[in-house]
What does this fold into?
Amino acid sequence: MFEIFGIPSTALFGQLLIGLINGSFYALLSLGLAVIFGMLNIINFSHGAQYMMGAFAAYIILQATGLGYWPALIIAPIIVGITGIIIERTMLQWLYKLDHLYGLLLTFGIALIIEGVARNYFGSAGLPYTLPDSLRGGQNLGFMFLPNYRAWVIAVSLVVCLGTWFVIERTKLGSYLRAATENPTLVRAMGVNVPRMITLTYGFGVALAAFAGVMAAPIYNVSPQMGSELIIVVFAVVVIGGMGSILGAIVTGFGLGVIEGLTKVFFPEASNTVIFVIMAIVLLVRPAGLFGRRA
Amino acid sequence: MSVMLDPRHALLTVEDLHAWYGESHILHGTTFEVMAGEVVTLLGRNGAGKTTTLKSIMGMVGQRKGSIRFGGRELIGLSSNQIAREGIALCPEERGIFASLTVEENLLLPPVIKPGGLSLDQIFDLFPNLRERLGSSQGTKLSGGEQQMLAIGRILRTGARLLLLDEPTEGLAPVIIQQIGKTIRALKSQGFTILLVEQNFRFASTVADRYYIMEHGRIVERFANSELDANVEKLHEYLGV
It folds into this structure.
């Protein structure tokens, strides 16, 4: 063991790891928010509730069918994504031409309903979800102990984030999405079914939140308020990165997770507020966010 | 490419077309037709309804009534993406180049809907500048003329038989206007049917077979290119030039 600025290295690396884990979830969730905002012009306030739905879906799948973590990682996002598609088709699609406020109010209401239903059936105490056997244990890296599951979360989050970025910025499908973000009417007049693309984008963004929820289930308690605790920070991340910026969401997600972790080591009193302080500074200096395209 | 429908056959028939943007009633019973292989120009003052006519054909206005038949099929009940898939493509007045797409992505954006579109090499033969600018990072960093070429070029790949060109010469230098005129004549010789909206009837006279004049959302006059000289007086009156 050695010390850095009087801090034991194990404590430092431990907090750095927790920061990266939190950053993984910030990145996954703010990525979904950015994709949805870019395409639908909707600030999806029910994102946290949909993350929580993913965790509960994994829990219910385990209780009802005995299917564990690995099947849940696929099935839960699909189920929650389909509920997202139903929400988009029945409600959100009528709001695109209105002010952002209406979409925000609707999705906020949906979040309250989802949380209320979850609390009604499962209580607010929180339910355990066991780690899959294959990801138990950990590696001793010499300077710190790295639990396998945490390494898995960071790696998967990175792969999913970069994969999403690649699809949007470097593929044909992505060029439709970017073009439709700029001028949906013209892209539609080229023969692309833009409304269907919008529906699937919302479904994908929601499924991404649910995926993060399943990933979180073995680390955090599965509880109805797990989403609302996280979503406030995630919104700060989105604002710092720049609304609608894909790369911004990923980089700021991981970056702020790490900054938050380091603050816990060096100045613990500020660790709960540091993200919001950064948000205030960024809004003052660069109102469009660090990666935002226009002011 | 050159084998198309019987030239006497009307490819596009617009009858008693009404269109609205929200509350405002823009087209008041527009009626005209375009034969297969023709270049037809809609002339008229600003606000006469020329752009709205193109957008209505494409299904891009809020509400429309009447009849638009294309190749025998009624389009009035179809959505914009279905209409495009029938084989009509629009080059909009504002050009519609996407800032978040590279030049190459802009060029390849419109999906190919039918066989028979031009190859990229054929498009570069028409617009040599585009080949040089292909590596350019952002579509909107091109000059106005290059953006116009990109906007026309990208709809030639799709296999659409009817091209709707909305003021392709607006704001461009004379040498580029000449190049666009040459392109339109080349496209006509390859069997494309073109409906052109223009304010500049001197340019139109170098490419058009026939003219319709619009005023207050209606067609008020029609004549062939051969009758242009006889109608110059009338044109000046309608266009206020």
Notes: The radius of gyration of chain A is 19 Å. Strands of chain A lie at 3-4, 7-8, 138-140, 145-147. The CA atoms of residues 92 and 106 of chain A lie 8 Å apart. The mean pLDDT of chain A is 93.
